[in-house]
């Protein structure tokens, strides 16, 4: 065991581009360079668990719920927001600076340049600029989709069907369909 960590609990791992990333509970994200065998540790630089003091300075929080990698981007979900790393620069999001319905993110899965977020308040899809938020429609009839692109206000529309519950526990996007696990069942979107 030559891995650097201060906690034994590790929730997810991702790989790509010659690296392996491990998301740790209270340990941030650990990176293994497969060629050199060297480990690197990414932690929340401000070490403030209640709030992200400086946006985009590194991980948003050390408690990692999931990591996912695709198309040159590493995504880290936490119960305090979202982080993305392109190998040079970190970006972070919370409910204060994004349309995310909640910072409590159970899981992030990357496909292409987009990330799919399983939150306790709905399903979110982010490609770095455009946000798509799927939540129960007012009155409980179907699902409401809100799309926000850049600085423009989000436009909402009602969908006839959708996810069975806003507490999304897991999401598995594939090229031609999507599996969503919620507190009230599993659904398949094609």
Would you write up a description of this structure?
- By secondary structure, the protein is mainly beta.
- Helices cover 0% and strands 52% of the residues.
- The chain is built from no helices and 17 strands.
- It has strands at 10-16, 19-24, 28-33, 38-42, 64-70, 73-78, 82-85, 90-93, 105-111, 114-119, 122-126, 130-136, 143-149, 155-159, 168-173, 178-182, 185-189.
- The strands form four sheets. The chain has a six-stranded antiparallel β-sheet, with no helix packed on it. A four-stranded antiparallel β-sheet has the order 1-2-3-4, with no helix packed on it. It has a four-stranded antiparallel β-sheet with strand order 5-6-7-8, with no helix packed on it.
- The radius of gyration is 17 Å and the shape is globular.
- The mean pLDDT is 89.
Structure summary:
With 190 residues, this protein is mainly β.
Q: Write down the overall geometry.
A: globular
Structural class: mainly beta
N-C termini distance: 43 Å
Percent strand = over 45%
- Helices and strands, in order, run as EEEEEEEEEEEEEEEEE
Number of helices: 0
What are its keywords?
single chain, 190 residues, mainly beta, 6-stranded antiparallel β-sheet, 4-stranded antiparallel β-sheet, 0% helix, 52% strand
Please write out the topology:
Elements: E1 10-16, E2 19-24, E3 28-33, E4 38-42, E5 64-70, E6 73-78, E7 82-85, E8 90-93, E9 105-111, E10 114-119, E11 122-126, E12 130-136, E13 143-149, E14 155-159, E15 168-173, E16 178-182, E17 185-189
Antiparallel strand pairs: 1-2, 2-3, 3-4, 5-6, 6-7, 7-8, 9-10, 10-11, 11-12, 12-13, 13-14, 15-16, 16-17
